[in-house]
Amino acid sequence: MILTRRTLFGTVAASVFALPEAGRAEDSDGFTQLVAQPGAVPLNPAPAAQTRIWGFGGETPGPLLRTALGQEIKARLVNKLEQPTALLWRGMRVANEIAGPAGQAPKYVAPGETHDFRFTPPDAGTYLYQPLVQPFSGEQLGRGLYGAVIVDEPQPIFSDSDLILVLDDWRLDATGQIIPDFDNPADVIRQGRLGAVSSVNSRAKTPPLTFAPGARLRLRLVNAATARIMDLAFQGGDLKIIALDGQFCDPFEPARRALPLGPGARCDLLLDLPPVEAQSCKLILRGETELPDVTLLEFRTAGAPKPPAPPILPPPPNPLLPVQIRLEKAKKLDLVIEGGATRTTPSNFKPVGEALRSVWSINGKSGTGFDGPPLFSVKKGTPVSLGLVNKSLFPQVIHIQGHVVRLLHDLDDGWEPYWRDSVIVPPLRTKHVAFVADNPGKWLLASAIMDHFANGLAAWFEVT
Questions:
Q1: Global confidence as pTM
Q2: Which end of the chain, N or C, is less surrounded by CB atoms within 10 Å?
């Protein structure tokens, strides 16, 4: 296993833009330490004060875990926080004892304790590790406790540079420090905690990156925000999405060159820069309400041009995923999502205590994701079709743990030609997903928006 912060960057980009540098701690038995502890990062450029965060190794993003398909990951979580913590390996279809949520499996890691993770990922792709321990998940994620995982495919996809772009937003005070209003009722009953400062790899303002004309860049986008659905747009260059949520798909250009990326979601894309000098391509975060658009990253061309890149070919199918889902034999269930502010809710409405914890519900029940009976229980290999019925006034992002799903077409039984581990459901709309329940265990089905998850929008299902 390769665990490093700089192995993905070409010589031009590495000097100005990379995941934060930090010493890598590896124990004598080969386990890489993921030490959850306070730290500080230069989120805003000097002379601004560094922003105090929580991170693995005191950095955010934490150490990059990178391995080849078929190779093992060995990671040791060391908790130096004053809260319990646990890890969610977002999107990785590993065994329940590894990926199950704390409260189901494995156990919480108390302050001062450690927990070892040892597993072989079944799928190549781009993934995220993040805390999942209620009611602390939102604060720990919002303070920067997360990192990226890459499982390399057997036949590498050609690119001149391979860049991991971990996106986040931050709610800061006038001194550049995180405002500690986690679980704010105003956030809980609406869209969740949104910050006005956007960052890429914990830097709010990144200098333009320069590459040769015609260079092909592989961009691995990871949304590490607690609540924001990143409305991303791409300006310039030739763009093709090649993977979503860790699973490869037939290459395609997104409609209107835009991509909504929910919390925890990932997208791999290939960007071919213009073949001449002095051109620019931009990754833009579209603003919401009063916030303007923000250029997250700019790529410029200079120097001698690269020879034409090879054609982008469809990937070989993942033999571990079904070619077809027998919808006619599926376990079918509608999940009605309700709660939050309504059109008549006063702006100063502030539920507290148990009223806050039950603001959101699935099928009329508020849960933690670890309590009560399962939403459903099916035998291994059973096809499942879920209707995600959003009766609220806010977009919802529903994560289905331990599995990947097909998004069904709204008007027929066809499905989109890609797999997802979470789905965005617009306000007052319904989306249908289907999957084969092939991973035994107890699995979360919950909001990827931490404020909603912690306050009722969570349940679980069982595969026996």
A1: 0.93
A2: C
